[in-house]
Amino acid sequence: MKQFDYVRPATVTEAVAAAAQPGAAYLAAGTNLLDLMKGGVSRPDRLVDVTHLDGLDQIETLADGSLRIGALVSNADLAHDAEFARSYPAVAEALLSGASAQLRNAATVGGNLLQRTRCAYFYDTASRCNKRAPGSGCDARDGENRSHAVLGWSESCIATHPSDFCVPLVALGAIVEIEGRGGRREIALDELHRLPGEAPERESVLEPGDLIVAVRLPPAARGFAAHARYLKVRERTSYAFAVVSAAAALRIENGRIAEARLALGGVAAKPWRARAAEDVLKGMAPTADAFQEAASHALKGAKPSGDNAFKIELARRIVLRALTLAATGTPARIPALPASPFASISGALHV
Amino acid sequence: MSELNLTSAPAHLRHGSNIGQPLTRRDGILKVTGQATYAADNHPPGMLFAVIAAASIARGRVVSLDVAAAKRHPGVVDVMTPEHKPPLAIDPEIKTNPFVFRMEALQSNEVRYANQPIAVVIAETLEAATEGAALLAPRYETLPPLVGLDAGESFVPPVVGVGNPAESYHGDVEAGLAAADKQIDATYETPPQYHNAMEPHAVVAHWDGDRLSVDMPTQGLKLSLARIAELFGIAHDKIHVRSPFLGGGFGSKGLMGGPPVLGIMAAKLVGRPVKLVLRREQMYGPVGHRAPTRQRLRLGTDTEGRLTALDHHARTVSSTFDDFYEPAAGASHTLYAAPAIRTSHDAVRVNTGTPLFMRAPGEATGSIALESAIDEMAWACGMDPLAFRLKNYAEVEPMTGRPFSSKALRACYEQGAARFGWAKRPLQPRQMRDDAGLLVGWGMGTATFPALMFQAEARAAIRRDGSGVMEIGAHDMGQGAWTALAQIAADAVGLDIDSLDFKSGTSDLPDAGIAGGSAHTATAGAAIHSAGAAVIAKLADLATSDERSPLFGAGNAGVIAREGRLIRRDDESRSESYSEILARAGVAEIEARGTGAANPAAMEQYAMHAHGAVFAEVKVDPELGQIRVSRMVGAFAAGRIINPRMVQSQLFGGMIWGLSFALHEEAITDRRTGRIMNANLGEYHLPVNADVPPLDVITVEEHDPHVNALGIKGVGEIGITGSAGAVANAVWHATGVRVRKFPIRIEELLTQL
């Protein structure tokens, strides 16, 4: 493989300085980056290993009731933190529905946010890809694209963001803490990822050197714990990316939806928060009709980018189901097949 | 491989018999403790690493390679290209026998398929070789590739599979269809699939002058050795191939492909040992695959549900430069008693690596189409699918009229259906739901696979210390040859398995034939059995002709070999140990050879097939279309079972392949470039544990006096057949939606649910 420098900074400040150099990339668990490097898709000159930085692996409750998750907390540690799973069950369920146990043990919170698309044309260096080689074209547009985007895509790029974790996070209004050359700043997760437009190579608003140090769930996010689900349709029961997924969270007061949160995964270049659908549900009784209408609003503007019209109908049905499940109530335990349509099947072990 | 520390604990042997015992794998402890040495685990001193640079186009020509850039990279030792390579003794395009396939050994700049090797970079480290290969930055002259089942003019291949006619018939199919009360006409599609053995293809080649040692997983030691010998122009006895363990083969390691030859060439070029291992995506091209098919089935029945005709046509593909044709329609030859059957094949040539045998070649692809069509025909007749199959049960082989050497399929149907609870199945689809509201469906399929044999030889010996030796260059692909063949060997020489030195897995041992066609246990087992009998006969001669032996004069009565003793058959009080006989004769070791092969007279007289019945339950989300198999029962009759534990595992594995065929596996080919877009285990979906329900396997008692002396039919492939169709039929029964394109995708169900 290509030779590269390996840097292990002692502090976040050193890390930011080291990674601000052209050709540098942060390395956390490397569950995505190392594969990309082996395939020649990413060819960084310098890896800045952040796994030894202090203070980035804590899960802490702040005075205002926010939960702050360090960027180096592993997916598994977070999902299996009992207090976390109780307070944000849809997030825990999404984490456990992703990848495999081995990958979850390694993969980090910060890395999950910045994982790259699974578009086959991005991974295949012989194909044209505007994301990998800006201006080269998009071979997915007229290619094998049944799993590609139906929302927010452009002629330049029809790739999707593959994260499960980000979907409930964006629904719950998560905030990303970033350390950069100009110091500390924070943005809503919903604003972290960019839609492709004319520049699909710019996947996020991060600047060179920017390091995600934590993800914060605001106090209000706890209010949905009783009615929150993540649902993921995939082509095998485990270890597959979502064809489409949805996170639904409801705050129900006196038989009415006081507040709804809804986001979709696998449909766009970013986790897709469906605010119009959330607005429709506000003040409504949690009925099938209301959920149907919300589902229609969630997919407003969706259009196929190829052989994937079915994803629009599938997404509608998933939204409807996720809202229905959320209204029914969060299960006492995360199902053995997390986020699966087969979650109700008993006797299965965690996968 | 006597240096291997094989174990037979903890299972205990039944007195007097090794065969039939569920021994655990004798190589199991080696494997779980990491001591089993696979080919790529070998690191001879001074070894270099070779990495293949593979074509990123499917058709055209390599115009240039930046060899200088690769060579400048630190650690790179040499770059092998069509212009810079050691000569081969013969052109690798020449087919010297029907089991030789054309390979890419850098003989030209032409590119015939994506992922074709175009150069090999040899370096001090794997990393340097990998980067060197990337630095070659090939430039191509690209031609529009031929892709898909309609790529060009179709033609009827001269043969399909191995030497089978492309077209066969008995009776008048058109008349049968015309006279039918009911008919179906359905077209099914199956995708390209790749073997994806867990162990990638690998070779460690080490030249010592004109002697060559090769560590390489192979399902055919002697065929590989012969191919190496002719390609490199060296005598057989100068070559030593070691293949003690394979991490799966499934047909892709049966015949010598290009990549191991490139590794041997690289070692010759640099004069040092070289290791070459394929990357996962490089396994999608030069080492074979299962070709896609489009199959049209036309069936007719009379008013009582008896088939009047069965017409099965299969379209498939081969490469532009060689011939292998998936014999899919052959699956219709043996199962159902139609008075008129016609099977036919045609093909087109596409820019692909040559398709090859892949676990149940022909039967797997053909079975899912045939079993789906039978299900559709039963429904058209308003009959239960099992009743329909029984109504059309073949008492003799339909195409030939020959009797079966044995056929316990009726018992498979009965026992499988009883275990599954089939009798409660509603005839109509979409009638069952579980407590969670998921749609539930039940489907079945009939399994079949021919009982084949190749040719094998074995050497048996008895030593003066009373122990035995059995030598045969057999292949353990994970199926359990180290165990099952040793069991046969121990019985053959009348010893406990722990008193027998079973040597296997290297090319200097007698030829065991290939491990393929579900025939390895039968073929190698027959050779072992005959070698054992021969050495015992020699030993008996020594004893019965020596008046000092208690067995003197027992020649006519005969002796039995048991627990290291020869025992007079008509008087068990008279016996003598092997060591006593050899010691008195002053012989250190007595040896004999034996062979195993099919009996042509019996094959002429009888149709020989294993059979089975598979029952599957699936659950389908009624709105979201996601499918999951929740239960499978398979009942199989495959003659004599040598080791029930290994056999059960083989059948489990086959059933999982069937499930995978119906619901998961598909190589996605870009229709414009001919490139495979999911050449990795993340996106080429195989079932994971959560997809595989508890499986229930019944091995139905079957005695076959004709197939071979041991009565073995083989179990390596039959589990796939029947299973794929059973799952597909269960999806229909759950949903009422008949999907004829495999694997069954969510979008196919979604709009019709």
From TrEMBL, chain A:
PROSITE patterns tied to this protein: FAD_PCMH
What SUPFAM superfamilies does its record include? Answer: CO dehydrogenase flavoprotein C-terminal domain-like, FAD-binding/transporter-associated domain-like
What is the protein's given name?
Xanthine dehydrogenase family protein subunit M
What's a Pfam family in this record?
A: FAD_binding_5
Q: Which UniProt keywords apply?
A: FAD, Flavoprotein
Superkingdom assignment: Bacteria
**InterPro entries to which the protein is assigned, alphabetical:** CO_DH_flav_C, CO_DH_flav_C_dom_sf, Diverse_Substr_Oxidored, FAD-bd_PCMH, FAD-bd_PCMH-like_sf, FAD-bd_PCMH_sub1, FAD-bd_PCMH_sub2, Mopterin_DH_FAD-bd
Residue ranges constituting the FAD-binding PCMH-type domain according to the UniProt record: 1-222
UniProtKB/TrEMBL annotation, chain B:
- Domain of life of the organism encoding this protein: Bacteria
Q: Which Gene3D superfamilies match?
A: Aldehyde oxidase/xanthine dehydrogenase, a/b hammerhead, Aldehyde oxidase/xanthine dehydrogenase, molybdopterin binding domain
Query: Which region ranges are annotated with the description Disordered?
Result: 1-20
Which is one Pfam family of this protein? Ald_Xan_dh_C
Instruction: Using the record for this protein, list the coiled-coil segments as residue ranges, or answer none.
Output: none
> Ranges for the Aldehyde oxidase/xanthine dehydrogenase a/b hammerhead domain?
33-144
Q: What name is this protein filed under? A: Xanthine dehydrogenase family protein molybdopterin-binding subunit
May I ask which residue range the UniProt record assigns to the signal sequence?
none
